[in-house]
Design brief:
The chain is an alpha+beta fold. It is built from 10 helices and 10 strands. A 6-stranded mixed beta sheet has the order 9-6-3-8-1-10, with helices on one face. A 4-stranded antiparallel beta sheet has the order 2-7-4-5, with no helix packed on it. A hairpin with a 2-residue loop joins β4 (53-57) and β5. α5 crosses α6. The longest helix has 20 residues, at 165-184.
């Protein structure tokens, strides 16, 4: 039996199948909402930032809470509900196989629609790879939180509509799939600390309330150095970088989805003043907040939640 090729780890075979294309996305705050049972022609990914609800996919149902990500394949019956007072929800409609002649349709399938026979060729081809079929349903935990961040990054990229946005969104969609697969196959080693690390991450994500690493470590019952090591291992960055990135990510969302001033945005995301915010933003993004806020061309896909006027 021939030896495996170098680097041919499980999952490489997906490169022969996956060419993701994001068709429609949004990142919005919704009051109590409900979409009755329906089926879709493409894949749907929903990331819950806050609030509670109830999702049913196929024959399984879950409570939907902050940090959860739901993966819904084509032709799969599903029902979604968000409870009062509301939810912050980011979502993607995407094809995993880009078809130039069939992937650019743009309409919504309403709740209650389960018979899609009239749409014929628009239905996404069935993909039976076991790594993809295991994604169906709810994802939670630290990998799901990272996946939710990627969903929101795709929504931001779509809203800004810079050159080659579609290509970047396709790359981010591959990153999203990897994060969800890693969550499904996470190693058990060290999992005893994971709930405490996730609580620390939640505190770091609370905008305007900066938490000291020493306090976070004490709450987790760890020394600061051990806490930093474990946190970096699970979340891929230090606690300080994780908190700063969460605040800057929210700042970018506010810049695209609202017209409030930069000074007000700086205050909302926990910076002492607009100058400190601008310096941190430029160091992270390579441009000033004002430059970032200047949106590009009209987006090539439908984007829900963009509020800043288009300049062209």
């Amino acid at each position: 039996m021939p030896a495996p090729l170098p680097g041919a780890e499980p999952g490489y075979e997906l490169l022969a199948q996956l060419r993701p294309h994001v068709r429609h996305c949004g990142d919005t705050r919704r009051a109590a909402w409900h979409i009755p049972a329906r089926c879709l022609l493409d894949y749907l990914v929903v990331a819950i930032a806050d609030g509670k609800g109830r999702f049913t996919i196929g024959k399984e149902s879950w409570d939907a809470r902050a940090g959860d990500v739901f993966w819904i394949p084509p032709a799969t019956p599903h029902e979604m509900r968000g409870d009062a007072p509301g939810q912050s929800v980011a979502y993607l409609h995407l094809d995993l196989q880009y078809r130039p002649d069939l992937s650019h349709w743009d309409f919504s399938i309403p709740g209650g629609t389960t018979d899609l026979s009239a749409f014929g060729p628009l239905m996404h081809p069935k993909l039976d790879h076991p790594l993809l079929t295991q994604l169906t349903g709810r994802h939670n935990g630290h990998a799901a939180r990272r996946a939710g961040d990627v969903v929101r990054a795709i929504c931001l990229e779509a809203a800004r509509a810079q050159p080659f946005a579609g290509l970047r969104m396709s790359g981010l969609a591959m990153e999203l799939i990897v994060e969800l697969l890693r969550g499904r196959t996470a190693l058990a080693d060290g999992n005893a600390h994971l709930p405490l690390l996730e609580q620390a991450a939640d505190r770091l994500r609370r905008l305007g309330k900066r938490a000291a690493v020493g306090d976070l470590a004490a709450t987790a019952g760890l020394s600061p150095s051990h806490f930093r090591t474990l946190f970096t291992r699970y979340f891929g960055q230090s606690p300080r970088d994780y908190g700063r990135q969460a605040r800057l990510r929210r700042a970018k969302e506010l810049m695209i989805a609202s017209s409030i001033t930069l000074a007000d945005i700086a205050r909302r995301v926990g910076f002492a003043n607009v100058h400190a915010f601008s310096k941190a933003f430029r160091n992270h993004e390579g441009m000033s907040p004002s430059e970032y806020r200047r949106c590009g061309n009209s987006p090539s896909i439908r984007v829900e939640g963009r509020r800043v006027p288009y300049p062209y």
